[in-house]
Amino acid sequence: MTPEQIIFYVFAALVIISALLAVVVKSLVRSIFLFFVTLFAVAGLFVLSLGDFVAVTQIIVYVGGVLVLMLFAFMLSSKELLNTLELVKTRYSAVQNIPAIVLSLALFFILVFALVKSNVNQLDWINGGNHLSVSDNTVQIIGINLMTNYLFPFEVASVFLMMALIGAAHLARKDKAE
Amino acid sequence: MIPLSNFMMLSAALFVIGLYAVLVKRNVIQLLIGIEFMINAALINFVAAGKSDKNYMGGQMTALFTIVIAAASVAVALAIILNVYKYYKSIDPDKLNKLRD
């Protein structure tokens, strides 16, 4: 095993275990902090596939933004959320645990089957010579592409962020009329 | 060099975990975490495949835009959750059954 493979498997195990724990654990706070671990491990995987800028963005936006937002959301709601959530089985909960596990495992096997059948490692464009290498300056390539090939999505994203900002501020405001 | 299929296998597992969270959880915030897991699974695929596209960096650029949009949607979703909590005093998705007052 090369060191690269060892690092990959460590990060992969970290992703899977922390994601599973985040889903299984009852307490919301623990679930959010395990989500944090998963996001860091995913950023590590991005670095391994030579997406260093994406990895840094992942850490800044997800860990710095989304996670803090989630912590705020449940702290601003009441203390009731901090308690273990009531496990009352309502009549309308169509999907209980066992069918959900079966469904998830079935989808996983379908995905793995499709992956094995499609033989992704032998595709032409994967094996072509157009690989990123470790010494490439990805930030420069991304910057040039952002201002040329991807200029339109870039501008649309800025308008979209503006819309989300105004929308979130409008939704979360307090009514003055009352 | 790690083969692409390893990354894709991992992302399939992460996606399935997110799906399970979305199906089972009785709490909107945990449901949102499940959705984020699914988005992250897609991101792993994009970045891993984008390694073989040096000229356009399609995978990494798509991943960047996806991160931006996911962050914005989480902001709006949490604002909605706070409003829903103010109104229903609960964030169990099974109890949210009215759109009007």
Question: If you had to describe this structure to a student in words, what would you say it looks like?
Answer:
- The complex is a heterodimer of chains A (178) and B (101).
- Chain A has 178 residues and is mainly α.
- Chain A has two domains: 1-83, Four Helix Bundle (Hemerythrin (Met), subunit A) (Up-down Bundle), CATH 1.20.120; 134-178, no CATH class.
- Chain A has helices at residues 3-24, 28-48, 52-76, 97-118, 124-127, 138-147, 151-172.
- The longest helix of chain A is centred in the middle third of the chain and has 25 residues, at 52-76.
- Chain A starts with a helix and ends in a 6-residue tail after the last helix.
- The model of chain A is unreliable at 87-94 (pLDDT under 50).
- Chain B has 101 residues and is an all-alpha fold.
- Chain B has a single domain (4-88), classed as Helix Hairpins (Orthogonal Bundle), CATH 1.10.287.
- Helices cover 74% and strands 0% of the residues of chain B.
- Chain B is built from three helices and no strands.
- Chain B has helices at 4-24, 28-50, 58-88.
- Chains A and B meet through helix 1, helix 2, helix 3, helix 4 and helix 5 of A and helix 1, helix 2 and helix 3 of B.
- Chain B: The chain crosses the membrane at residues 6-24, 31-49, 61-85.
- Chain B: Its main location: membrane.
- Chain B: This is NADH-quinone oxidoreductase subunit K.
